[in-house]
From TrEMBL:
This is biotin--[biotin carboxyl-carrier protein] ligase. GO terms for cellular component: cytoplasm. Residues 6-190 form the BPL/LPL catalytic domain. One of its GO terms (molecular function) is biotin--[biotin carboxyl-carrier protein] ligase activity. PROSITE patterns: BPL_LPL_CATALYTIC. InterPro entries: aa-tRNA-synth_II/BPL/LPL (IPR045864), Biotin_CoA_COase_ligase (IPR004408), BPL_C (IPR003142), BPL_LPL_catalytic (IPR004143). Pfam families: BPL_C (PF02237), BPL_LplA_LipB (PF03099). PANTHER family: BIOTIN PROTEIN LIGASE, BIOTIN--PROTEIN LIGASE. It comes from Nocardia speluncae.
Length: 255
């Protein structure tokens, strides 16, 4: 990265921020560290990620230093398990705000947590709960396309900051902005005793899916179509009168 990540007042939330040259998966690395109950609010950033993955184990790859590959681990002591579905939505909100503030791009969310610019995917988020251990922990992984060219995109409907005409995007500045926004959102949610009212309002304002006709492809070949009306108290998407979670859907597309 262009310069070392340094301690700032906004980043006091985190107990450690580590940058490595290369790893298989930043999420897998932090899930392994979760076995130590004292590990909490730590961040791992990789210049290159060899075995990155997205939802449903889809591969997520990029050339070295062309992307932000970042994971962060938080302990969820005191958080009702029914509210864990808000963590990926909170992370997506933080990524949108970081992109808007750091680069000025019109970033928005596709439910639940894909980050889009003008309908093209620029970032994905993978949230995984650590198995076992004396303290529950969740790891949020973020993959954000920074300087990929058109021929380097993982899928045709993706984009990058360079392709969105952001001049010389600063990956370190973006990481700092993302972590700052996450810390602000998570701290406010915790201080509100995990009340989701403000978080839900912020998410709705940034979610381009709401109010649009969608087609949800379900495991086994089923389909659910209708207007994406709202999100419920668990962060599930309301399509017509049906509530669906991210785990219920294989693909969500415009109808």
């Amino acid at each position: 990265m262009r310069h070392a990540l340094t301690e700032t007042p906004e980043l006091k939330f985190f107990t450690g921020i580590e940058v490595v040259e290369s790893t298989g998966s930043t999420n897998a690395d932090l899930l392994a560290r979760a076995e130590d109950p004292d590990v909490d609010r730590v961040v791992l950033v990789a210049e290159a990620q060899e075995q990155g993955r997205g939802r449903l184990a889809r591969p997520w790859t990029s050339p070295p230093r062309a992307q932000i590959s970042l994971s962060l681990l938080v302990r969820t002591d005191g958080l009702d398990p029914e509210l864990l579905g808000w963590l990926p939505l909170l992370t997506g909100t933080a990524v949108v705000d970081a992109l808007r503030s750091a680069t000025g791009v019109p970033a928005a969310l596709k439910w639940p947590n894909d980050v889009l610019i003008e309908g093209r995917k620029i970032a994905g988020i993978l949230t995984e709960a650590a198995a076992g251990g004396p303290r529950s922990a969740v790891v949020m992984g973020v993959g954000l396309n920074v300087s990929l060219g058109a021929d380097e995109l993982p899928v045709p409907h993706a984009t990058s900051l360079t392709l969105c005409d952001v001049p010389d995007p600063d990956r370190t500045g973006l990481v700092l902005a993302l972590l700052t926004e996450f810390a602000k959102r998570y701290s406010a949610w915790r201080d509100a005793d995990w009340d989701t009212g403000d978080l839900a309002d912020a998410y709705r304002e940034r979610c381009a899916t709401l109010g649009t006709p969608v087609r949800a492809e379900l495991p086994g070949g089923g389909l659910l179509t209708g207007i994406a009306r709202d999100i419920d108290t668990s962060g599930r998407l309301l399509i017509g009168e049906e509530a669906v979670s991210a785990g219920d859907i294989t693909h969500l597309r415009p109808s």
